[in-house]
Fold these 2 entries.
Entry 1:
Amino acid sequence: MNYKTPANIIIWGTIFLKAVNGVSLKIREGEFVAIMGPSGSGKSTMMNLIGSLDVPTKGKIFLDGEDISTLDESDLAQIRGQKIGFIFQSFNLINNLTAKENVMIPMIFQGYDIDERGFRADELIKLVELTPWAAHSPGELSGGQQQRVAIARALANSPEVVLADEPTGNLDTKTGETVMDFLNGLNKKGKTIVMVTHDPDLAKEYADIVYWLRDGKIEKVTKKTVKRRIK
Amino acid sequence: MIKDFFYLAFKNLKSRGIRSWLTLLGIFIGVTAVVSLISLGNGLQMAVASQFGISENELITVQAGGLSGFGPPGSIVVDPLTREDANAIERLSSVKNTVLRNIEDGIVEYNNYVNFRYVGTIPENKEDIKLINAQLDAEPLLGRLLKESDLGKVVLGYNFYNKKEEWGDKVIEPGKAILVNNEKFEVIGIVEKKGSIIMDNVVLMLESDADDLFGFGDEADVIIVEPKNKEEIAKTKEDIEKLLRQRRDVDEGEENFEVSTPEAALASVNSILDGVQIFIVIIASISIFIGAIGIINTMITSVMERKKEIGITKSVGARNEHVFLQFFIESSLLGLIGGAVGILFGTLIGFAGIYGINLWLGTELGLNIDFILIFGSLFGSFLIGGIAGIVPAMQAAKQNPVEALRG
C-alpha cells in the first residue's frame, strides 16, 4: 500500500438517488469533515458512497484520482480494505470474537500473516487503551470500550480515510467525548476523518468543514475559522 | 488465509445454538449406521463363519440333504451318506483322501451332573486324524488331541473346561473321567476355544467308541474330502457332485446332498451379510441426505441471522469470495463434526456389538477399526457439509454490503 498517496475524495456531478441528489463535494487529505443533517437527509447514503459500500446510479466518485463509481464489487472491497476505515454508531463488532480478533479481521482480507496481525492488533489495542481488555468479547465491554475497539479495527490496515457514522450516537456524553478525542487525535496525526452526525455541536467543535445536508442536497457548507479545541 | 477462515468458522460454530447441532442428526445417524455396521459387519462375518465351522482349510465337505428334523449337521437325514459313497469318492482321480464323520447328541455325565452334548467321531488312522484335525482347526489347550490308539478316551471342547458351573462347579480337565451314554471315558485333552457352539461343546472320540454307543454302521453324517490338487478344488467339487448324482440317482438341480467348499460356504454367509449391509447403507444414505438438507437449512438460516456480520466483514474489506469461503468452510465443518460424532458413536456401537457377540457366542472377536473407513467417513462428511453449504454460501457472498449492514 502506498501510504503517501494523497487522499482526495471528490463527489462530482449529479447522483440520481432518492437519498442523495446533485451533491458535489471535495475532501482533502488530512481534513476533518462532518456531514450534518436531520434524519432522512441522505447522510448515511453519502457515507456509503464515500466509503465505497455503494455506488451511485449516476455521477462519479474519485478516490485518490481513481473513479470508484465504476468498479466492481471485488475492487470496491479491496479499496474498503486498504484505504477506508469504518466506525459505526452501533459499533458493529463481531460478538463471538474477542476485541483483539475483531481488530485483526480487516487484516485477514489483506493477506497479513498471523504474527503481523497479532503484533499490529496489540499496538492498536494499546493505542485505544484497551490492552487489559484485548481478550474480552464485545459483550463484556462497555459501549465506549466497544467503540474504541471499532476505532482500532478501522485503523487496522492504516487507511487514509476514517469514516465515522454517528460515532457517539450510542454513547453517553463523557464516553462520547473520549471517542471524539481519539478521532481528533487521529486527525492530528494526518488521517482524513469524515464523520456523519446529526449533532451540530459535535460537528462544529471537531470538524474543519461541515456539509449541511437536507433532502439529499447540500444546504450549506461551513468552515471552521478558529482553532479546534484539542484535549 | 484459508486457515483463518477455518478458525473463524470454528469460532462461529462454537457459539451456535442447539438448533444448529440438531440438524447434524442426519449426518450423525448415517455415519453412525455405516461405521457401526462395517466395524460390526466384519465381526459378524467372523462370528457367523466360525459358527458354521468355516475355516481357512481347503477341504471339501459332503453332507446328505433332505433333512427330516433338527439336529447336528447331517444327523437326521432321509437318505444318509455311506462308507460306500466315501470309497467311491476316494476313487475319483481328483481326490486324495476321504474321512467319514458322525456327530450325535450324547448324554454326558460328570460329578453327577448330566448334560446333552454333541459327540463327534475321530477316524482311526494317522493320516485321517491329521485331515480331521485340519478340518476342525483343533489345537489342544490342555493335554493332547486323540491318537488312533486312544480307545476309551475323549477330547472335549473348551466349554467343558470353562463352564464348570454346568458340572456342579467342578472343573473337567485331562485325567478326569466322564460318562457318555453311561460309558466311562477318560478325558485326555481340552480343545482351545473355537467360538463355535458345536466345537466348544463337543466330545471327540474314536469311531469305534462312537459306533459302540450310537451304532452308525456304515452311515456317515459328513464325508470330508481332501482334493489332490488344492488349486482345483472347484473341479473336485464338481466331480464329487457328478458322482453322487449318479450314485443317488438324482438329476442336476434336485440333489439330496450338498458338497461345499470353505470358499463357497463363506460366500453364502457373505451374500447374506451383504444383503443386510446394502439395506443399512441405503438407510444410512437416506439419513445422510436428510442430514445434508438439514445443513442447507441451518446455513440458510445462519446467513439470514448473520446478515449484519456479513455487512461488517464486507465493510472492512472482505470480498465476495472471502464471505463465500467463510460460510462454505463453516458448512463443511458442520458436516465434519456430524461425521466425527457419528464415527465415535458408530465405533462405540460396534464395540458394544462385538462385546455382545463375544459374550453370547463365547467368541473372542476384536473390533474391526478400519482407518480407511474412518478417514473416508470424515472426508465424506466434510464434503457433504461443503456441498450442502454451496448455495447458502453463495447467498451470503452476494449480500449487498449496505443492506447487510442494516441487518
Entry 2:
Amino acid sequence: MSSCLEVAGLKKSFAGPILRGLKLQIKAKTIHGLVGENGAGKSTFINIVSGLLDPDGGSVKLNGRSFKPRSRRESLNQGVALASQELSLIDNLSVAENIFLSALPTKNCRIDIAELRYNAKELLNMVGLEERLLEAPVVNLSLAEKQLVELAKALSLPIDQTSLLILDEPTAALSSFQAERLHNILLDWAHQGVSILYVSHRLEDVLSVCDEVSVLHDGEIKLTTAASQLTSNRLIKVMTGKEPQRQGQDMPRAYGDTRLRVEDLSSRDLPQSVSLECHSGEILGVAGLSGSGRSELLHAIYGFGLERKGSVILCGVGQGAKSQVEINSPSEAVKNGIGLIAEDRKSQGIFASQTLSMNVTVAGLGKLGKGLNALLPDREKQRTMHLISSLKIKCLGPSQDIDRLSGGNQQKALLARWLEVGASVWLLDEPTRGVDAESKLAIYRLLRELRDRGVALIIVSSEMDELTDVCDRILVMSNKKHVDTFTRGHWSKTLLLEAAFSEYKTKELA
Amino acid sequence: MQPATKLLKSARELSLSFDELFILLALVILTLFFGLTAENFFSMSTLFSILAQLPTLTVITIGMTLVLISGGIDLSVGSVVALSSAIIGISFSVLELPFFLAAVLGIFAGGCVGLVNGILGSYFRLPIFIVTLGMLEISRGMTYMITTSQTVYIGPTIQWLSLPIPGLGISVSFVIALIVVVVAQLLLTRTVFGRYLIAIGTNETAAKISGIRTEPYLASVLVVSGMLAGIGGLMSASYLGASDPNAAIGLELSAIAAAVIGGTSLMGGRGSVIGAFIGVLIISVLQNGLAQLGVSEPSKRLITGMVIILAVLIDRWRHR
C-alpha cells in the first residue's frame, strides 16, 4: 500500500528538544490516530506539516514527493487541510465567510455571495449545523458550534484536492452524537481516497474510528499498531513511557497546619467549583491535560478571573482573630505573601528589556510603601547580588538586561522575585518549562528547601515525573473539573493519567 | 584618570545613561553645525527666541513622556493648553480674579481633563488613544465656547512670567520648566511610582501578577499629564499676553516627536525625562537654525519629519 505522508528523522527544538527524530508513515486512504501526553510534541508535529513551523532536520514526503511548506498557504495548496485545536476562526466574520476564507468565490472582482452561501450551506448540512447560522457572526456561536465550523472549514477543500486532512482534537467540544456524525464523514472521505491524521485525547474515539494508531512520547513515536489490536489502557501505558523506578520517598511526609483554604472557588473559566487545602510544608501538585483548567485554578486562587466566586482564605498570618485573611485580588495576594509564577514566562513573567535587579525587586517594592516613597538603589543591588549567588543565576550582574539570560536563568530570576518578597504560599505554573536540565534540578532543590522551611506550594505541571517526584499530594483536573486527589504512596502514573482522561470519555447525547 | 572617562563618571553620577549622553551628543553636533553654517546662530537673540518658545513644549513633553512610559498616550494635551489658557484669561481679565487663583483654576482644569482620561482609560478599560482623541475635541470645543472663539487680551500684567529675570537672562516660565524636568526625572528614576510606571508599561500582566494595582497608577499619570498641560496653558497665555483659542493646535504631536527623539518608546516601558528635554531642545534648535539658514517653511517641515524618523531608526538599531 502506498503512503500519503512519510516522515523520517524529524527534529525540532525550542528551549529544549521537542521532536527527537520522529518517524511516521500514514498510509493512503486510511485514518491514522496520534495520541500522546502534553508536551510529547503533537502540536509541533502538526505545525510543521501544516507549514506553520520549519523543522530543524529530517524529511517529510507527501505522496512520494519532498514536502517543505514555508507557509500555511503553501501547505494548503498542496492539499493539506487542517482543523486546528486553537480554532482559527475570525470572530467578526460570518460562518460562511469563515468556512471559505482561504478561497472566497469571486465574480467580477466581488465576492460571489450566492455561490458562497450555496457551498457553505452544503458543508453546514454535512457537519450537522443549522442553516440559519450561515450569516451569523462566529462570535455568537457556542464552543461546539465553533468547532463544527472549524471542521467545515477543513472539509471545504474539495476531496480531489485534499491529500491529507489533519484534525487536532476535533471532538473536544462535541457531543457523542455530533462526534459520531463526524466519524461517519471521515470514514466516507477515507474511502474516497483522503488520508486523515486524527489527533485526540479521547482514546475511545481514536480507537473506534482510526485504522492505525501511533503513540508519541517525548518527541519519538513509541508504537504504531492497528487500532483493532489496541485498548485504551495499553495506550496509556505506552504514553507514560517506562514506569519510573520506585524511590525511597514513597512514604507520605508529615506536614503542618492548613495555610491556604480554598472553598467552592469558581470563575467563568473554571465553571465547576473547586475546594482544596494546602498545608504549611506541603507541595500540592495539580495534574491534568492542557486545557483541563489547571492554570485557571491557580489564577482564580490568586484573585484573577471574571465572575470569581467562592473564597480563598490564607490562614496563620497573624495572631487571634486576624489570623485569617481572604484573598480577592492579586495585589491582596502579594501583600499577604502569596506569589504566582505564571505559565508563560515571556508574556506573564519577566519585564523584558529591564534589568535583572528591577525584575527581581519589583514585587517587593510594595513593602517600601506606595507612590512617592523613594527607591533604595543600594539595597536593590545588594539584595539582587545576594539572590544571584544563592540561586546561582548565570549573569553579568544585577544591571544586565533580563532578556540576555537563558530560559533557566530567567526562571530563577522569577523565583528570586518571590524569595525577595518572602512569600509563604507559592503558586507555580509549569515551573520548569523551557528550562535546561541543570536549572531544573536547581529549581527542584529550591522547592524542597522552601517546603522544609514551612512554605506551602501548589505546582501545576504537564510532566507527571515532575509531580510524582516532588509532590506530597496530587490533585487531578479533567475537563475543567477536579476529579480526584492522590496521596504519596497511593498513586502511579497510570492511575494519574486515567484520572486525567476520565472526563474526556465520550459524553452522553447532549 | 582620562578626562573622557572622568566626564563619563560624573555623568553617571547625575544618573545620565548612555542613551541620554548619545542624544546630548546629537544636540551638541546640531548646535555646532548651525553655529558654523548660519551667521548669527550664536547670538543672544537666537538664544532668547529658543528659550521663549521652550517652556510650554517642555512641560507637555514631560507629561507625554511619563504617559508613554506607562504604555499609554495623551493626545489631548494641545487642546488642554488652549483650554487652560482660556480659563486663565477669562478669570483674570474678565472676572478679575487674582492672578494666583486664575492660574490655579487653569491648572486644575487640566488636571480634571486628565482625571476623566485616566478613569475612562484605566477603570473603564477604554482604549486610551481614542479617549484622549475625543478629549482633544472636547477640550478645544470648550475653549471656543468660553472664549466665544475670540482671543482674550490679557496684557502685560501676565507677561512677567515669560520675560527674562534681570541678571539671570532666563524667564520664570523657563525656571518652572526646568524644575518640572528635574522633579519628573526624580519621580521616574527614584520613586516606587516611577518604577511601577515602567513595570506597567513593560508588561501589564506581569505587573499585576507582581501585586501592582495598575489602575490607580495609569489614572494618575494621565492626571499629571493634564496638570502639566494646564501649566503649559499658563505659560502660553503669558508668552502671548493673551488667550488664543487656536493656541497649541497639534502641539501634542510635537511633544510625541520630542519624546521619541529623546529615546522614549511608543510601546511603553522605556524612556527618559532628561532625554525628552534634550529632544525638545533638538527640535527648537532645528527650527531656529533652519529659519536662520533661510530654509522655507515647507522644507523645514520636511527636514523635521526626516529627523524624527532618523531618530527612531537610530534608536531601533541601538536597541537591537
